[in-house]
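debug: dumping io for the single-chain case to check the tokenizer round-trip. Nothing else runs in this session.
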Amino acid sequence: MTQAHDFPAYRGRMEYFCLGCGATHGVDELLYTCPGCGGVLLLRDTRFDELKKTPAQAWRDIFDARAATKTNALRGVFRFYELLAPVVEPRDIVHLGEANTPIVMASEALQKEIGACFGFKNDGQNPSASFKDRGMACAFSYLRALIRKHGWDQVLTVCASTGDTSASAALYAAYCGGPITSVVILPQGKVTPQQLAQPLGNGAVVLEVPGVFDDCMKVVEHLADNYRVALLNSKNAWRILGQESYAFEVAQWRDWSVEDLCVFAPIGNAGNVTAIMAGFLKLYELGIIEGLPRIFGVQSCHADPVYRYYAVDDPKERTWKPVQVRPSVAQAAMIGNPVSFPRVKHYAERFEAIRGKEGFQVVQVREQDIIEGMLAANRRGHIACTQGGECLAGLRRALELGLVSGEETAILDATAHHLKFIGFQQMYYDNSYPEPYEIEPRKDLANAPETVIESEERDRLSAEAYIVEAAERIVKRLGLAKK
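debug: decoded output
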């Protein structure tokens, strides 16, 4: 058996598979949509059944052993090499410390407040501070393989973004260097200063387009259809592969027993929830897990096309319609026409066939609940972003609707680090949200620094008197008792 420190000998045969017309295409070039019908593509390993010859327990042992490996190529998402992109050679794999993010169970007080057993998977602890690094590690690794194979001397990577994708793409492009350069296209004025600083700091060309993410995506799609560029949005199926590692890590954290889990993920462009379902299904097919968890997608009422689709109970009556988005604190989820929706539908049907109708569900939440979900989590010691707050709001809503039982454990996807969205927290504290956000801050949740002593008073006092006076005022403010 392959040892944990050895790079796997197994090599798959990858192909693109069109969800529209069923056509297959080779992977010697980057494809984003089907050349025949324009449909959405998946990637699959045509040798996947070979993996079934290895007993399930052997796979568990292999992946558990690799969790301690010092082999750089196997330390990130490629710890699960055979399940991701088993055509990439170790010399092409990019690892910047992504993946293996912790699941932090909610504090006892927060679990009591919410009325459920749950924890956050802190994907904000990835290198660029978001879950996007999982997909970029895989996408850039395969891009490096293509560059080496074809001898390309210039490759321009491009993505549309509300912040996290651009930060991740710019980081990995800067690290890989060589023929790779990075361009990111952002909706003007719709990206937080913290997120904008990341691609600028990594040297990417940053271009702004008036409008929202959907407008940027249309521009990027036009470029990918007509020019030689490497698109890095979730239309890139290699990115989706890397994000499957989220599901693998959740299952491994639970010692490969996930039937009592409810996994909550925000739905933006729908790539992440797609990848999570795809990852669990792979584990299930190989017998590594014996049952599936339940998956809950969460959408704000300001950007909820997937919720609206699944709100229609009869599948025969459902009709897909993009929506016009409104401002949202969950900026990464503010997408009215997610490109990965066909993938969601594909995997949701497979989930429901195995787990029943409750296997995949979508809940809708208010903007007020999203921001207050983030605040509630972080006041109890977490580092959840607004998307993490959206997941907590989704759990609350699922509990209200009776969709989650007390016997289940919920895993909430905190997709990015809290500090990326610190401006939304400050707007709450300052009560400065523009009307379209539909947020009315609660005074009891506001927080602000308090001045202990004015600078003019300090100037009038001696150094020793100033220290005593400042200390005495702090004693009075905190109600401290002498020793």
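debug: round-trip ok. The longest helix spans residues 132-150.
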